[in-house]
Please model this.
Amino acid sequence: MKGEYLFRVRSKRVRFSFRIRRNITLIKGDSATGKSTLLHMMYEYLRSGRESGYSVWAETDYFVYLRDEIGRDWTDVLLPLRNTVIFIEENNDFIFSQGFAEFIKSSGNYFVLVNRAPLRMLPYSIHEIYEIVLDGQHADLKEAWHTFRELYSNFPIYKNNRIENVLTEDTNSGFDFFRNVFTESTVTSAGGNSNIAKRLEQTEAENLLVIADGSAFGAMMEDCMEILNDQKNKRISLWLPESFEYLILKSGIISSPELMDILERTSEYVESTQYISWERYFTDLLVRLTKNTLYPYSKHHLVGYYLTETSKNRIIENFPEEILENLPL
Model:
């Protein structure tokens, strides 16, 4: 399954409008924010259609899983589904299991998971973690309009940081590149995104910039945010681009006639049965586009082409302004 899909859900008093863009979406938030209401409306419309008193308009098939029924568990219900956006209500503990994670990777469906806790088995994007909010532009006395709002859209978080230290997720190619860019900083690798929170807890470094792949960092966000709030005096900043490979592709140093369209409409190209995250897609795309060139890309070793002044400067142009201002001239 690939593409992005618009949903409109309506009753006489409540409206929801939102788009699903990737294979894994999380809806978080406190009680009484509309999460259960949305899924209940969609579920009842599946059962009874217009007789439910609700209407659902969707650009693809969908399914709502509320809880296990007598004699059936989630595998009986979900495994037969294909090319469907599957919404799963809170308090279904199976979503934390390895079996469910494997199902997501191979099922060919999209998943919208209502859950307040991070799902550490799954590599989901920081940009697909939402809360449901009242859209004030449409609110009136008769109907309350609701939409999805990203919880972690304001990155980089950056305040008074002179970037004396850099911590990267990458161990090889990405690490080599950032070490060549931040030449006046101490650059170290966390050895993977799952190690970043632990390294932040243990670090004594100040003016620290953390760089990680945002397209697979969703499960780590809450841990990192708690640590950042506890260690404000250390001036720790987060920068979470989609991935290092995405920065290269966006820089224009790789020639491909369809690359601009891919980067603008990535949802239309990422088949969920092949790629559990956009990070993996961008890596595979960059490897394929450079395979028969003088500068083949590998995550294990960065060839000199990507470290030339011309290539470096083109990639650096995609850095946030707050970081550019602190790079050595």
